[in-house]
Amino acid sequence: MSSSEKDTLDIRSYLFYNLLEDIGAVPTSCAGEMQQHLYNGDYSLFKTAPVFESNFIQVSKKGHVSDIHHRVSMVTVGVSSTDPRLYIPDVLLIAQPSERQKQLQLQIFNRTPRDSFKSGARLHSGSFTTLQLLRLFPLKLTKISIYDEDNHRLRLKLATHQSFYLQLVGVDPRFEDEMFQHWVKLVKHISSQGGELLTLAPAS
Q1: Which helix (H) or strand (E) holds 184?
Q2: Percent of all residues in the chain with a pLDDT value above 70, rounded to a whole number
Q3: What is the residue-averaged pLDDT of the chain?
Q4: What are phi and psi of 60, to 5 degrees?
Q5: Contact (Cβ atoms closer than 8 angstroms) between residue 186 and residue 139
Q6: Positions of E strands within 31-184
Q7: Which of helix, strand or coil describes residue 109?
Q8: Contacts 24+ apart (CB under 8 A), 62-65
Q9: Residue pair 14/52 in contact by the 8 Å Cβ criterion
Q10: d(CA 9, CA 85)
Q11: pLDDT at 115 > cutoff 60
Q12: CB-count burial class (<10 Å; 0-12, 13-18, 19+) for 195
């Protein structure tokens, strides 16, 4: 697909958007941090592509929170498509969320030390780092699976055979179960392809 053709696309032009509709995961409000970052940055492949994303805490295989240098490790995980004709997403993106988002969600996760949020403290967007895209992995070389559905945990296995365990941190705890069910359905679609990505056949 030429760059001029991509310029005429919008988010609904992607078959992956149809998949998100099918599993009930189309966002009803503003785009997430990762999607906004991709749309506004120098990422031509994702200028109009739908992104399904959530924030996760890195945990051990047994579910213990990873405490690296006395700091909880949080990442934003997203899946997207580099080709509008793909129904199944083909890329996995890993980012470090903005400091503001990280601290707000750590409060929700109840892992932030109480003294780090003093009563008079205010959150100013200008004083925090923005989201930083760290890695991009082709999904055909990366295995994403549901490791512990009850505790909302995913397992990522890279081509290097290194595995990571991630526990969902919902924006609102009341809807965390619903959000993780979207991941369950999405992972089933990805896994069902067995590494082969479903595309729209070209018109004859």
Answers
A1: helix 176-192
A2: 75
A3: 80
A4: -80, 175
A5: no
A6: 51-59, 67-68, 71-72, 74-80, 91-96, 132-138, 143-148, 153-157, 163-169
A7: helix
A8: 63/148, 63/151, 63/153, 63/165, 63/167, 65/111, 65/167
A9: no
A10: 12
A11: no
A12: exposed
pTM over 0.70: yes
What gap in Å lies between CA 54 and CA 79, rounded to an integer?
Answer: 10
CA dihedral 194, 10, 43, 139 (to 10 degrees): -10
Sequence-ordered alpha helix ranges (H) in 23-117: 33-40, 99-109
Higher pLDDT, 52 or 195: 52
Give the pair of three-digit tokens for residue 133: 């895209």
Residues 74/106, Cβ–Cβ less than 8 Å: yes
3-state SS assignment for residue 68 = strand
C-alpha closest to that of 154 among 168, 136, 171, 139: 168
